[in-house]
Write a structure and sequence with these properties.
Blueprint: H1 2-25, H2 27-31, E1 43-48, E2 51-63, H3 65-68, E3 69-70, H4 74-83, E4 90-100, E5 105-108, H5 123-129, E6 139-141, H6 147-150, E7 154-155, E8 158-159, E9 165-167, H7 170-176, H8 179-184, H9 187-205, E10 216-219, E11 222-226, E12 235-241, E13 244-248, H10 256-259, E14 266-267, H11 273-290, E15 293-295, E16 304-310, E17 313-318
Parallel strand pairs: 5-6, 6-9, 13-15
Antiparallel strand pairs: 1-2, 2-4, 3-14, 4-5, 7-8, 10-11, 11-12, 12-13, 15-16, 16-17
Length: 325
């Protein structure tokens, strides 16, 4: 009987082994399936005190950062990037930040829409995938009016956020909506002015552009803080709830691997490089000292984390992934 039991066990084992071999022999057939070549919808959500923050991807775009960055040679930038297993042109994120305060739904920056090439313009679809509808957005805060931050205001020739009011520093709107400035601008910048006129200008014509002046609280828990330099009215938005804080610094940083360890490095898009560098140094130091979160449109998605001082610069510590919020 004992021998018979062993035979039964052996047969079961051989049958299982045969099934395993059959499964593995089918692996070649499975490998012939076409590659999906798409990622999951680009949004990430976390709680900041009582506020819900949803970071929404507009996509990525390749930028020749080794020539755009100033203060280091092309060779130096390439060497720094290589240490982080990166290279130029660098696939660069474009992100927006959706804040639900419980009484207001606020979007900080809208992505590029159709103004910056086919790899961007995904913010609206990703916002919907995150569970929100563009009609629910109450206010839109613009850090600055470069095309990759305002292009998403318009979709299919209409206001993408039909119930929203657009807020930006008055210096920013005055500069970019000026016909005189557009005419005087160098040829390579004229498209920037045209983009602002087609997007922000449409909201202004509908009476839905409401500029503010300097540092001011826009809704309870969200304050505009002037951080000019990258553009004439560049603004940081500081979000605070229940003792927790997030500073959305717009384009104070473009390339994490280079500008965190050396904040003196500027970029060719800056309208005033000295002011932009000074503001970056100040905000990095404040974030490291205060231990609060920093978010930026062009940090690798989801573009949010902490800074800690390291040498003469800083180390960026990305937000820890969590399924619970």
């Amino acid at each position: 009987m004992k021998f018979k039991g062993l035979l039964v066990s052996a047969r079961v084992a051989l049958t299982a082994a045969g099934l395993a071999v059959a499964a593995f022999s089918g692996a070649d057939a499975l490998a012939s399936a076409p590659m999906a070549k798409t990622n999951a919808p680009g949004f990430y959500r976390f709680m900041l005190g009582d506020f819900e923050v949803t970071i929404v991807s507009d996509g990525t775009v390749e930028l020749p950062v080794d020539t755009l960055l100033k203060g280091k040679s092309k060779e130096q930038v390439d060497e720094i990037l290589a240490k982080s297993y990166l290279r130029s042109p660098l696939e660069t994120s474009v992100d927006g930040f959706l804040i639900n305060t419980g009484s207001k739904l606020v979007l900080v920056d809208t992505g590029a829409g159709t103004l910056f090439g086919p790899t961007l313009g995904k913010l609206l679809a990703n916002l919907k995938a995150s569970g929100y509808q563009p009609e629910q957005v109450d206010e839109i805060y613009i850090t600055h009016m470069h095309p990759d931050h305002v292009g998403g205001l318009i979709a299919d020739g209409k206001a993408a956020f039909p119930n929203a009011v657009v807020r930006a520093d008055k210096r920013e709107s005055d500069y970019w909506l000026s016909d005189e400035n557009a005419q005087k601008a160098p040829q390579e910048m004229k498209g920037f002015f045209q983009g602002v006129k087609a997007t922000v200008g449409a909201y202004a014509a509908a009476g839905k552009l409401k500029p503010f002046t300097g540092n001011t609280e826009l809704v309870p828990g969200i304050k505009a803080v002037s951080s000019v330099g990258h553009t004439p009215g560049h603004t940081t938005y500081v979000v605070e709830s229940q003792g927790q804080k997030l500073a959305l610094v717009g384009d104070l940083v473009h390339v994490a691997a280079v500008q965190f360890p050396d904040p003196t490095v500027t970029i060719g898009f800056d309208s005033d490089t000295k002011e932009a560098e000074s503001e970056r140094q100040k905000q990095f130091a404040d974030a490291a000292k205060g231990g609060y979160l920093l978010g930026a449109a062009h940090l690798p998605f989801p573009g949010t984390g902490h800074l800690t001082a390291e040498g003469k610069g800083y180390r960026f510590i990305p937000l820890n992934y969590s399924q619970i919020h």
